[in-house]
């Protein structure tokens, strides 16, 4: 491996690392809450509410993220009412904002499925016991249902986080220069394709390792009462 | 508001989109077929812990599953351009048939990705087979090859189907990514159409609907296979 090239590539790709991290954190923060709301809606007795959540999940999980991204960035960007509306244009008109929105809406669909699985797995007796103690619905959700569901769903959610990190690479197709965007540029400038791939790939593996470790620690903390 | 539906019809884009969809499906199926072969081979290696090969398979699956698909596609496309030109020249071809070349590399890239995910599915399915079944077969003196054909393979197949459904859904969605390197599949056709008619909204909406149709139909297909493979129990 050419050492000079490494000195050129590492700082450039590290610049992209920053943006990849921002894209991931912002879209996970929005997507998790949206996904939680969708998961609760999905279990609603009102068929219109649960139907909407199911349809949302089918559409966003059934189409490629790239299509969603282009539909928002180029498609919605074409429509005049989006251009004239200051708030909408702030979201759609900027590559980073639009990528965060697309990633958040996409991960919300997957998150809702994961959390729904967690919510379903809660034994009915626990919820009944909380009811018998006179807990309100919100308190019950906060103290009983949610902590148990999240503990159940955590390993699957770790996988989803890795998918979000990988998804941020698509932002490079709408002019956002994160790791993959910089990597593509370096590949076509230097022709050192394998070297650039190796460095960029290592950065991604590093991010994933950090995330997986955090999830494992959280999991260990949430199950600290269980015998090992 | 002018959406450009008329331009889609007038410009003959419907048939272009359908051709693109056909290429998407062909690409998905070819990659999935190769991916399953890779998955069964590598899954068996991982399950049986065959020592030196196991390390190679571990490296392959953790890199491919941890690095963005787009980066893998760039790697394979950029690094193969020269190599493929040399191979073609060696066999006496002068100019490369553009789409044929792109299709081949796309299959290699997507198959490598779906192969890594299939490996994990196959390994999981093999691990889910009760070890007592295999021990019982050994105790009866059934030869190893027949144990695989009669005991391991049928159970593995049934357990792996839901996981393979997931891999297929991911694979068909991953094919959209090769549009960035110019293969004329569904996403690329939508991109070109959006550019030349200046109506991106309608083109990407149509592309999204076609992808949705593909995933919903194949979901139905997998549900049917799952029902067929379910063990028949006495009522």
UniProtKB/TrEMBL annotation, chain A:
Belongs to the binding-protein-dependent transport system permease family. HisMQ subfamily. PANTHER family: ARGININE ABC TRANSPORTER PERMEASE PROTEIN ARTM (PTHR30614:SF10), MEMBRANE COMPONENT OF AMINO ACID ABC TRANSPORTER (PTHR30614). GO terms for biological process: amino acid transport. It is found in: Cell inner membrane; Cell membrane. It comes from the Bacteria. It holds the Pfam family BPD_transp_1. One of its GO terms (cellular component) is ATP-binding cassette (ABC) transporter complex. CDD domains: TM_PBP2 (cd06261). The chain crosses the membrane at residues 17-41, 62-81, 87-106, 192-218. Residues 17-215 form the ABC transmembrane type-1 domain. InterPro entries: AA_ABC_transptr_permease_3TM, ArtM/GltK/GlnP/TcyL/YhdX-like, MetI-like, MetI-like_sf. It comes from Ensifer oleiphilus. The keyword Transmembrane helix applies. Keywords: Cell inner membrane, Cell membrane, Membrane, Transmembrane, Transmembrane helix, Transport. It is a multi-pass membrane protein. NCBIfam families: HEQRo_perm_3TM. Its main location: membrane. This is ABC transporter permease subunit. GO terms for molecular function: transmembrane transporter activity.
TrEMBL record, chain B:
GO terms for molecular function: transmembrane transporter activity. One of its GO terms (cellular component) is ATP-binding cassette (ABC) transporter complex. The chain crosses the membrane at residues 12-40, 71-93, 100-117, 201-225. Its main location: membrane. Signal peptide: none annotated. InterPro entries: AA_ABC_transptr_permease_3TM, ABC_transp_permease_HisMQ, MetI-like, MetI-like_sf. Belongs to the binding-protein-dependent transport system permease family. HisMQ subfamily. NCBIfam families: HEQRo_perm_3TM. This is ABC transporter permease subunit. It comes from Ensifer oleiphilus.
């Amino acid at each position: 491996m050419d050492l000079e090239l490494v000195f050129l590539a590492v700082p450039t790709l590290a610049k992209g690392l920053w943006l990849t991290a921002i894209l991931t954190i912002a879209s996970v923060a929005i997507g998790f809450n949206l996904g939680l709301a969708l998961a609760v809606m999905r279990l609603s007795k009102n068929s219109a509410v649960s139907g909407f959540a199911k349809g949302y999940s089918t559409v966003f999980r059934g189409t490629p993220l790239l299509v969603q991204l282009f539909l928002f960035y180029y498609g919605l960007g074409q429509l005049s009412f989006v251009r004239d509306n200051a708030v909408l244009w702030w979201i759609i008109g900027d590559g980073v904002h639009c990528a965060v929105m697309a990633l958040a809406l996409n991960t919300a669909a997957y998150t809702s499925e994961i959390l729904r699985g967690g919510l379903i797995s809660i034994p009915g007796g626990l919820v009944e016991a909380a009811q018998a103690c006179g807990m309100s619905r919100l308190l019950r959700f906060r103290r009983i249902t949610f902590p148990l569901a999240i503990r159940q769903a955590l390993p699957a959610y770790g996988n989803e986080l890795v998918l979000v990190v990988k998804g941020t690479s698509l932002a490079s197709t709408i002019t956002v220069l994160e790791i993959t965007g910089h990597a593509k540029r370096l590949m076509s400038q230097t022709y050192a394709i394998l070297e650039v791939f190796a460095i960029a790939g290592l950065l991604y593996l590093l991010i994933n390792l950090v995330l997986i470790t955090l999830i494992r620690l959280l999991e260990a903390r949430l199950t600290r009462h269980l015998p090992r | 508001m002018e959406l450009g539906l008329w331009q889609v019809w007038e410009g003959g884009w419907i048939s272009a989109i359908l051709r693109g969809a056909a290429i998407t499906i062909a690409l998905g199926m070819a990659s999935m077929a190769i991916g399953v072969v890779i998955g069964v081979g590598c899954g068996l290696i991982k399950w049986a812990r065959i020592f030196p090969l196991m390390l190679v398979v571990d490296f392959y699956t953790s890199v491919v599953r941890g690095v963005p698909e787009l980066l893998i596609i760039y790697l394979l496309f950029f690094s193969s351009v020269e190599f493929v030109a040399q191979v073609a020249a060696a066999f006496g071809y002068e100019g490369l048939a553009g789409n044929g070349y792109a299709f081949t590399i796309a299959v290699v890239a997507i198959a490598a990705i779906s192969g890594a995910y299939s490996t994990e599915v196959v390994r999981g399915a093999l691990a889910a087979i009760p070890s007592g079944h295999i021990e019982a077969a050994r105790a009866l003196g059934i030869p190893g090859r027949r144990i695989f054909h009669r005991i391991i393979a049928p159970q593995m197949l049934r357990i792996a189907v839901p996981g393979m459904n997931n891999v297929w859904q991911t694979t068909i969605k991953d094919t959209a990514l090769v549009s960035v390197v110019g293969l004329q599949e569904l996403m690329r056709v939508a991109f070109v159409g959006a550019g030349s008619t200046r109506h991106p909204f309608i083109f990407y909406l149509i592309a999204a609907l076609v992808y949705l149709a593909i995933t919903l139909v194949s979901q139905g297909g997998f549900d049917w296979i799952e029902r067929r493979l379910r063990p028949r129990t006495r009522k």
